[in-house]
Specification:
The protein is α+β, with helices and mostly antiparallel strands. 36% of the residues lie in helices and 13% in strands.
Length: 171
């Protein structure tokens, strides 16, 4: 897909067809987009947890109770550890930036494949930690469902964004 069309067409989808899982080859192309994402000092401090089994989905879905989230056939979690990420000399650590860049690459790859996503940061981390046996060192900033929209679903198609002149300053 042409990139400008891709980024303009990407929307957060809140309507998933629970009967239509995503093919493994498509999932692997999406995951590979995260694998090749840039990270500070090329540390690649991430792990991609793709939840697809009924048992694990039941546990993970408890971290975000919205009905539409319960229908997604897959959930993607990007986790990483601060100690594995690059740190600037003033102490700032790149873990959040690195993990979100990887997730963004996968979200855009999913859009390219016709797979719906929704960037979710409002989840119960303790529930997710328990379900996935994550340690206290593991950081998770965002999760996304992966799946195809329900039949009949259509995108809004109109993004509300500030004008370029409101957000850019040429110096």
């Amino acid at each position: 897909m042409e990139f400008t069309k891709l980024i303009n067409g990407r929307e957060s989808i809140r309507s998933y067809d629970p009967t239509k899982p995503v093919d493994r080859a498509v999932l692997e192309r999406i995951l590979d987009a995260g694998r090749i994402a840039p990270s500070a000092a090329n540390r690649q401090p991430w792990r991609f947890l793709l939840i697809s089994s009924r048992e694990m989905l039941t546990q993970v879905r408890k971290c975000y109770q919205k009905p539409w989230f319960q229908d997604a056939p897959h959930v993607l979690v990007v986790a990483g550890r601060t100690g594995e990420a690059w740190a600037r000399q003033d102490g700032w650590n790149s873990i959040e930036t690195d993990l979100t860049i990887a997730m963004d690459h996968m979200v855009l790859a999913a859009e390219n494949e016709g797979v719906a996503t929704c960037w979710i940061a409002n989840f119960e981390l303790s529930v997710l930690r328990s379900a996935l046996s994550l340690s206290s060192e593991d950081r998770v900033y965002v999760i996304t469902p992966l799946g195809y929209p329900r039949p009949g679903f259509s995108k809004k198609g109109q993004k509300q964004r500030k004008a370029l002149t409101d957000v850019v300053k040429y110096l």
